[in-house]
Protein: Tir chaperone protein (CesT) family protein
Organism: Pseudomonas straminea
Amino acid sequence: MSTPAYRSLIDSFCSLTRLSNPHSLYEHTAVEFNGIDFTLLHQDTPSGGRILLHGDLGNLPAGDLATAAAAQRLLEMNFHLFDGHAGPVFTLNPQSRRVTLGVNLPLPGLHAERLVELLAELADLARAWRRDCFLERPPSERPMADLTRSALRSS
């Protein structure tokens, strides 16, 4: 069950993004933002709640070698994302078999404007994944550099 703080965030988010019927998103928030599918799951906690955010990056590339290379790249990126806290993580959705980026966000202090900014950043990341599975650019130009500097950790 969603809390008043989460419902307020969803109301503000819907107002900013011109989504109608925010009430329908209180219990299961699945939205398309900048052409990318996102799911937000609210967790009530003693510290004020959390949002588990999953962004659909897309499929793993076809072919054993390409799949292995892309999976290795995601594991390398997870290594850099891990900071001992609830940082972002790349996953494979077991139902859809699609790559997702999971982010654990504290609800207190999260404003709709920041959520919109974050979804825009993640949508850009998803498009980068869909272009080349993070494999075609030199390491200094891969999305990892942007992701580690992103406000994902400070949200």
Notes: The beta strands are 29-33, 36-43, 50-59, 89-92, 98-106. The chain has one domain: 4-149. The CA atoms of residues 42 and 51 lie 5 Å apart.
